[in-house]
Specification:
alpha+beta, Nuclear Transport Factor 2, Chain: A, 6 helices, 4 strands
Length: about 300
């Protein structure tokens, strides 16, 4: 339904398939952003305390100077000591309004990827997934779980022939070229997949061309795939040059392109940064404009019959 290749699992990986009944976007890889948010929040609270303390000290100092000028010493009655003035309503309002505005702007920038992910998931789950099952978030995750072992096997064996049925020609050529360069440099990539942790559907785009008039053909899907695996590069003496020989968590961006029937893998690259330009991509058209290629061919044949 959502894939056109046969799922043959390799013996050297332990990837397990799990069916999810609910899919929700989660916050991931944002330790730096969360720390920044907490630091800003604590900074505003600290400024409030410091500002109030400084104001209290200034008021007390001023009152002591007035008493000294009048030739009076410390008051005998504690009730004669002036009470520091509390911060006024407008001062408090402006102070906290600036903090709220700052946190809002930071949130818009930091969680821009998650915001677009929620919008994409809502449309895939509530609209597109009913008519095109391969767009359902659960099926997208299953597709990635089946494709991942083949991808890691190709990296490890420098052979991507098992991926030809579900990847683009550009992808296999690129990966084969990179594998040949490693072999030429007398290096080897060692990688073993443990499991796919999460699949985040970040966004989708589509642009019509002379060859592509209706989606889903040509729809470009951007995924963030979190996986646990062993992945490192060693030289001919088996000395590790890049990476570590122990399981680690990786984040990769997968670019899938729809061929009219199912998804094909077109690009994979590693990143820890947010993808913040998804909202600027060409949006998907309304569902009424979507056609399968075979449906278009049937309609064209029917039109020819009517013209005859």
């Amino acid at each position: 339904m959502f894939t056109s290749f046969k799922a043959t699992m390799h013996d050297d990986n332990t990837c397990t398939h799990k069916t999810q009944t609910q899919y929700r976007p989660t916050f991931y890889g944002h330790g730096f952003y969360l720390k920044t948010f907490l630091i800003l929040h604590l900074s505003f609270l600290s400024l409030g305390v410091i500002f109030g303390e400084a104001q209290a000290q200034q008021t007390q100092k001023s009152s002591q100077e007035v008493l000294a000028q009048q030739g009076k010493g410390p008051p005998a009655d504690i009730n004669e000591i002036p009470v520091p003035k509390a911060r006024g309503f407008w001062g408090t309002l402006f102070f906290w309004s600036g903090g709220v505005l700052c946190m809002y702007l930071v949130g818009r920038k930091v969680f821009k990827e998650q915001s677009h992910e929620r919008e994409t998931l809502k449309r895939f789950r509530d609209e597109l997934g009913h008519f095109f099952p391969e767009f359902d978030p659960i099926n997208i995750r299953k597709w990635v779980e089946i494709a991942s072992p083949h991808l890691y096997h190709g990296w490890r064996e420098s052979d991507f022939s098992s991926m030809e049925s579900f990847s683009s020609e550009r992808f296999t050529n690129t990966q084969q070229t990179l594998a040949e360069e490693l072999t030429k440099d007398k290096r080897k990539r060692v990688c073993h997949l443990d499991k796919v942790i999460a699949v985040h559907t970040l966004g989708a785009e589509w642009s019509n061309t002379d060859q592509i008039e209706h989606p889903p053909l040509g729809v470009k899907l951007t995924l963030r795939v979190e996986s646990k695996a062993i992945d490192f590069i060693e030289d001919e003496s088996e000395t590790i040059i890049i990476g570590k020989a122990k399981p680690n968590q990786f984040q990769q961006i997968w670019i899938l392109i729809h061929n009219g029937k199912t998804w094909t893998l077109d690009e994979v690259y590693s990143t820890d940064q947010d993808i913040t330009h998804l909202s600027q991509r060409p949006p998907l058209p309304p569902i009424a404009e979507w056609r399968r290629p075979e449906t278009l061919n049937s309609q064209q044949e029917s039109n020819l019959d009517l013209d005859a």
